[in-house]
Amino acid sequence: MARYISELYNRFMSLRLTDVRALAAGIERLTIWLRRQTPTEVSSTTLTALDRLRREGPLRVSELAAREAMTQPGVTILVNRLSDAGHAERLPDPTDRRATLVRITAAGEDVLTRREAARAEVLRARLAELSDTDRTLLTAALPAIERLVATGNEESRKTD
């Protein structure tokens, strides 16, 4: 098992374009499958914005726009929808009286919690169909996936 994981690691570390494309396609298929299996009452754009606000705390609209790769007018419309639905609120920026911050509310947290619980249940059922080896391999890959995502988040902050 350890040798197989080592070989798999070495294969992906070679960064062959075909491997990278296959990994990207697999991640995309998993994401699409999870979305289809667990529909929510809000859009994926709303979910990603709420998730960012939960992870990073209150942000200015301009910061949220940059980190979500959206236009500032688009994020303003999104924040208006979030606020109207009670999923986020605007606060005065303590460092700049002219600016406001956007913060997730308890209702917004609840939307994310329900989505995560639904996805976890669907994924748990599907994982139960896999072999112990496959589940071990997926679990072993989690730290690398987290590092990959963390690096991407750091890069988005540097562009602000």
Automatic annotation (TrEMBL):
Keyword Hydrolase: no
Keyword check for DNA-binding: yes
Domain (HTH marR-type) ranges: 9-147
Keywords: DNA-binding
Cited PROSITE patterns: HTH_MARR_2
Name this protein carries in UniProt: DNA-binding transcriptional regulator, MarR family
GO molecular function: DNA binding; DNA-binding transcription factor activity
